[in-house]
Every structure is written in structure tokens, then in C-alpha cells.
Amino acid sequence: MKIRQRLVISFLIVITVPIILICAAGSALMNYHMNEIQQSYNLETDTIQILVNPLQVLNRLTRSICNRLQTTVLRHPEKIENQEYMDSINKELKTKFSFLIIRKEKEYVYVGNYEEFKQIKEKLPEYGADSSEIDGGFYVSGDNPALVKQQDFIYKDGAQGSAFVVTEVDTILPQIRALAVQIVVAFILIICFTASILILWIYQGIIRPLKTLQCAARQMSEGNLNNSVKVEKEDEIGDLCKDFENMRIRLKELIESRIQYEEDSRELMSNISHDLKTPLTAIKGYAEGIMDGVADTPEKLDKYLRTIYNKANDMTVLVDELSFYSKIDCNAVPYNFVCVNLDDYFSDCINELTLDLEMKNIDIGYFNYVDKNQQVWIDVEQLKRVVNNIIGNSVKYLDKKKGLINIRIRDGREHVQVEFEDNGKGIAENEIPFIFDRFYRTDASRNSSQGGTGLGLSISKKIIEGHGGKIWASGKENVGTSIYFTLRKCDCEKKEDLNYE
């Protein structure tokens, strides 16, 4: 699951699950407490009304008593002066969390709860005041809030009287407070439960894979690149694990390549030392012979000098090829690609080589199975170096009295294939994969009698790869060797690029 989907689901869970659970818990708590309230106070009202307008509920608690009191003070005001009657009314009101106050003119002649009376005395309205707010009563705020109902009347002696029924708001319906507290507690518990589930889910999906990555990164920092990272999820974390694993593999390959490069460099230095030591030893020996007077005839002197000259030339060729190989290995050799006629190019190459090969008793054959007008993208000079290297290798390892080199060109979909085949001594099958390595020679002793630097085919491989082609070989001992490479076709429109001059 993608992290984006996980976040969307988490958002929905955070919104919906608490709402559902809170509604369920709230409904259960409200039903329980409302039933208790209805049974405790003998109310026949629904839950919504109790919660929405609790003062109306408080008002209903004393409604029947207030109605009886109203009838009494209006029809029989003399009963209000009866202490026993007022005590009975007040006793009944106490069961409803209320008490009675009687005022005659400015004097309070009866107070059912003196402590509460002191809190609201100054807030009681005058005779005839229209202060009804809630079904004949009004709300008195303060430290001890109360709901007060007022009924004015006239005593037998003509004095103005007021009867007050005071209901204590802060002590009535404690279940509502308990309900509110329980709902808040339930809300907190539900939020904690939902958060715990989400944290566990996120930990399993995000944190644990990140811990695995952290462990793998720590091992990589310690040099251990063999600990692979397993990808178990198809999300962004899984993609990160895949990228991390690819980085680990790539880094391991780079380190192995660096180690191999260092080994190759040591081998290169050894090979260079060997290939330079041989001609240098020869030059030194012949030079000492001249200085010691061994070359005491003009013929010997000429022979010694020519040998020194040839060995110096061999060293020059080796140094030049080393310099060129180092440049091409670092991609420092620029290519000048042009679109040329394939047949014309190879025909000219063969014409340049024919005379020299005939002098060495070697025949060269050219077979073009491609359209005569086929064009290819090449760097003229660099590809000629490849042709000369391959032909030079064939000449060097020919062991027949009559040598033969055949060049064949065959067609492909996007490339043409060029083949150089000779009838030399061939190559052992187990050595074919290595002939394009630098300084590789089939003679393990690196005998220099046949000449060469061991860089020719390695340089050829770099050049062909720079042309976007491939190069490979096949052969059989005592039969011959074939070298193949491919060149890209092109469809040129500019006339000056179409023909090789």
C-alpha cells in the first residue's frame, strides 16, 4: 500500500472511528443516565429535552407544587400564615432540591433554607416585578445559581406578599455532570485507543522498514556490502528499499571494479616493465658491444646500430600505443563521425594493404554481401586503426607457407557485420574471452620475437564500442582465427557525407 493511501486511510480512521465509538459510548451513557434521571425525579420527558434545556427540566420538578401553592395563596392566603402548612410545603420541596421563601411587604416571614437564602436575598425581585424567563421562573447566577419562581398575592389584611420557590441548580441532576465527565473520559480513551492502533499500523508499515534500512546503512558504513535489503512492500518505502538495494549492488560493483582496476594497474606496470626491459636490455648490450670494440668491422657495426634503431622503434611504438590506450580508456579521444560509403571505404583499405601483404606471401580476399550504396557512421581514422590492428595480428600469427586473409561484410537490421578471417595458428577456445584484454598474449612467456604490444585488440575494442558496435572473436587452434565487429548504418542526406574520399 502506498504511503499516500496509508495517510488517507489514517485520516479517515482518525475521523470516523472516534466519531463512531464516541457516538456509541455517548448513546449508551446517555440512555443509562437519562433512565436514572427519569426514575429518580419521576420525569416523563425525553433525553434530548433534558440535555438541551435542563432548566425546563428543573422547572418541571416543582411545577405541581407551585400550582398548588398558587391556588392556596390566591384563594386562601390565610394558610400562608400557618407555620405547619408552610413547613409541609417546604418539606415536599426539599425532595425536589428546592425550598420556600415567604415575604410580607419588605419582611421575609418564612425561609426554608437560610444558608441559600443569604446568597440570593439581594437578587429576589420586588412585588409585581415581571421577571419571568423560564416558564414562570427566572435564573439567578452566582456562586450558588438557582431557578426562582415567584407568586405574588394579597394577605387578608391587605399587605402585599410574595411566595418564592427556589430550586438549587448546582445540586440538582448530578447525573448530568457525571454524564459529561464520563463522555469526556470516553472521548480521551477512544482517542488514545485510535492513536495506539494508528501508531502500531504506521510502525509496521513505515518505521520497521526504515529501521531495516538504517541497519543496512550502518553495515555499509562499516564496509559490509553483502547484506541485502529485502523488499516486502509495494509502496514508497518499498521503492526506497529497491533503490537502496540497487545502490548497494552498484557500490559493491564499483568497489570490486576498483579492486580489479588496482590489480590490472599492477599487472599493467609489470607488463610495461617486461616489454620495456627487453628492448632496453638489447639496446644496452649492443651499445656496450660497440663501446667495447666487439663491432670491429663495418658490417658488425651496421648490424649493431640497426638493432639498436629497431629496438628504439619498438619502444616508441609501445609508448605511443600506451599513450593512446590511456586516452581512449579515459574517453579522452574525440571521434569525428561521418557517413561514408561502406564498400568504397573497405576497398580503399584493402588496396593500401594488398602490396605489403603480397610481399609477405599473403593473399587477401574481399567479399561484400551488402548493397554497394550502403552508408555507415564511422570515424575514418580510428576505424582504419582497427583494420590495421586486426590485419597486423593476423600477419603476426600466420604459420602457413601461403597466408590467407578474407574480409566479409554482411547485412543486418541496424548494423552491418564485418569479418576478418585468417588461416593462422588460431586461438585456443579457453583463451578467446581474454584476447581483447590489454597486454594479453596467447604466449604466457610474453616472447617478444613476434613483436607487438598486446594492446592492439584492446584498443580496437574501445574504438568499436565508441562507434556503438560490438566486437568478438572465434577460432580454432591450427585452423585460423576470425574477428567480427559491427558498424551502425546511416541514412545521410548531405551529399558531402555520402561518399568517402
UniProtKB/TrEMBL annotation:
It catalyses: ATP + protein L-histidine = ADP + protein N-phospho-L-histidine. GO terms for molecular function: ATP binding; phosphorelay sensor kinase activity. It is found in: Cell membrane. Its EC number is 2.7.13.3. Residues 204-256 form the HAMP domain. The chain crosses the membrane at residues 7-30, 179-203. It comes from the Bacteria. Residues 271-491 form the Histidine kinase domain. One of its GO terms (cellular component) is plasma membrane. InterPro entries: HAMP_dom, HATPase_C_sf, HATPase_dom, His_kinase_dom, HisK_dim/P_dom, HisK_dim/P_sf, HssS/ArlS-like, Sig_transdc_His_kin-like_C. CDD domains: HAMP (cd06225), HATPase (cd00075), HisKA (cd00082). Pfam families: HAMP, HATPase_c, HisKA. It is a multi-pass membrane protein. Residues 244-271 form a coiled coil. Signal peptide: none annotated. Keywords: ATP-binding, Cell membrane, Coiled coil, Kinase, Membrane, Nucleotide-binding, Phosphoprotein, Transferase, Transmembrane, Transmembrane helix, Two-component regulatory system. Its main location: membrane. This is histidine kinase.
